Please model this.
Amino acid sequence: HYPVKAVETMNRIMLCTEREMLTHHRDHFHINRRINPVTAAVTQAATEVAESIQAKLIVIATRSGATASVKSQSRSRIPTFAASDSIRTIRQMNLLWGIKPITSQHVESPSTLIAEVCDWGREHNHLSPGDHVVFVTGTGFVENAHNLVVVHTVT
Model:
């Protein structure tokens, strides 16, 4: 009896919280000092771009999960995949709000990751031609670049 009441109460709290989140847009992220400020700024900007163009999906390539952690803090309602080739990182990202971790061996090749995600999205009817997908890479995936944001239009 009490477990059912507890779950019902938690559900009411969650529904109320999500309604509030939809009506009160957060103007800024709380930046974690352990995360590189460039990573935080690029991730915040990518989230704002995705929201302004009504992207269908955000995809983050990450080794450590730090970029996904920053994105999670935004509480954006855009579905977000975080791709990593590290099982440890995948497991840790399962705890992040709004992040769906996926294993990919293509995180170091942005063009291959883009193709892989778009193929999956079309096959499962989540993406259609003309939809926008915002891709964000963490530090170290592209030579001589800190982070990368790509807005891709599905064909």
